[in-house]
């Protein structure tokens, strides 16, 4: 049977959310209604109800997460590094005020304490209100939500964490410092002797220079560096990268999944995500 086509007589809102990636590329979602808009001390924050992807969280005009595909990003930024560490007990999430990464981190039974260092309390509040299934973990007894500058928090906590996850916005505005070599050096210092980190590092199609630089900077800071990929439909180009820096443990050594209730991650996906297309290998080898 061919595609089921929409009845063109049904009236539709003609309001579209459009994220301009650059002068030549945008992604668009038809909006059913605007649920929330505010200007926080750090950024603009909007929440929309969309037809295709459910609720959509937008910061400074960029898609942060949607109801329908958030699981891919949150599971892949958390479970690939969390499984790479044999026994992660103390975990820090920098950014990630919506709570999605924390929700995944606390699925690991070894976790005793998970700190969220988010600069903008408005993101946490909006997520609790409009994305309760994403923010659910923020109330867990092991979770400590700190509304602070993540860069300073990392600098102030040497030799503290087993795993640090950097769930930043795009490298503009408040997130610029989270993509710098100085910051990766602070992250290295905040990790215990066998600690490891992972960060979201944008699209290999749209952000090649950034990926090249970040890989070099993490590679100069950590003995082990690994870029890995996942497919996230609402992020520009759909192909998304994450970069891990590790003092000792290798993501290739993971043998099985320690968490059962995932929708994207499993041990096979873990290894598949490490396999890089040739044009992405070029970015990390140069
Ligand atoms: N271009 C999208 C980059 C967004 C990365 N962070 C999203 C936050 C979701 N927890």
From TrEMBL:
Keywords: Polyamine biosynthesis, Spermidine biosynthesis, Transferase
Catalytic reactions of this protein: S-adenosyl 3-(methylsulfanyl)propylamine + putrescine = S-methyl-5'-thioadenosine + spermidine + H(+)
Top-rank taxon: Bacteria
Binding site for S-methyl-5'-thioadenosine: 43, 118, 149-150, 174
UniProt GO molecular function: spermidine synthase activity
Pfam family, one: Spermine_synth
Keyword field contains Transmembrane: no
EC number annotated for this UniProt entry: 2.5.1.16
Pathway it works in: Amine and polyamine biosynthesis; spermidine biosynthesis; spermidine from putrescine: step 1/1
Residues where spermidine binds: 74, 98, 167-170
InterPro entries per record: PABS, PABS_CS, SAM-dependent_MTases_sf, Spermi_synthase, Spermidine_synt_N, Spermidine_synt_N_sf
Residue ranges of every copy of the PABS domain listed in the record: 14-247
Catalytic residues in the record: 167 (proton acceptor)
Family statement drawn from the similarity comment of this UniProt entry: Belongs to the spermidine/spermine synthase family.
Oligomer and partners: Homodimer or homotetramer.
Function: Catalyzes the irreversible transfer of a propylamine group from the amino donor S-adenosylmethioninamine (decarboxy-AdoMet) to putrescine (1,4-diaminobutane) to yield spermidine.
This protein's name: Polyamine aminopropyltransferase
Organism name: Alicyclobacillus fastidiosus
